[in-house]
Amino acid sequence: MKKKVVFLDIDGTILNNEKKVPQATKEAVAKLKDQGIIVAIATGRAPFMFQDILSELAIDSFIGFNGQYAVHQGKVIHQNYYNSEQMEQLLEYSSNSNHPLIFQSVNEMKATVTNNRHIEMGMNSLKRGHPEADAEFYKKEPIFQALLFNEAHEQTVYEETFDQLRFVRWHEYSCDVLPKIGSKAHGIEQFIKKLGIDWEDTYAFGDGLNDLEMIEKVRYGIAMGNSVAELKRKAYFVTDDVEDDGLSNGLKRVGLI
């Protein structure tokens, strides 16, 4: 029997506006698993930031850091981290611009400053607090992703200065910093190759700008009703809002449950 896989974004897809998993979503994921369909989280978050969701949904496969780190059944199958020189250059430039960073490893994250308002607002939107400060954390642990805190109009200069990096906005005051090839789609590609799954049997649900490549890469890329407009234009179809059981309804519409 051919394997099928469903990749699920977290915020705005699995989690509703209250950062909770709707009961319909729990039931839908259980039905997928009962059929032998692989369910994997695909998120921009670091792994330590969604262990509770993995546990709640009994999922053991995921793609984290926007494609930089992939795990199947608890085993790491792909990882791509920065070298310290890249992070040092970014830190020097962002410090001169008074734009703080957060460095993320698999198990923890550290900020480059303390008590920053933009960091507070960005982390609060994820129901997390301001990380401890350690501007040299990138020298101590493999860094898979950095978060840059600035406003949208300040992002362009970084894109022009760092041509080997991508800057993907996820918050009014923050964007993810990724390698040029970094995306959820890249992580999914490594996942699919490792497991030998046919692309015809790949599905994904998302709602944000960091889901664009993923939605286009899989065979059935489905946008939540609460998605950004650009994602809706790229999607195979648009399901209902996360507050209206969009994930469960989308899985029914595509014939998986």
Automatic annotation (TrEMBL):
Q: Which CDD domains match?
A: HAD_HPP (cd07517)
Give a yes or no for keyword Hydrolase in this entry: yes
**Gene3D superfamilies in alphabetical order:** 3.30.1240.10, HAD superfamily/HAD-like
Q: Which domain of life does the UniProt lineage start with?
A: Bacteria
Per the UniProt record, the source organism is: Gracilibacillus xinjiangensis
A molecular function annotated in GO for this UniProt entry is: hydrolase activity
Does Hydrolase appear among the keywords?
yes
InterPro entries registered for this protein in UniProt: Cof, HAD-like_sf, HAD-SF_hydro_IIB, HAD_sf
User: What UniProt keywords are attached to this protein's entry?
Assistant: Hydrolase
Instruction: Specify the protein name.
Output: Cof-type HAD-IIB family hydrolase
| PROSITE patterns per record | COF_1, COF_2
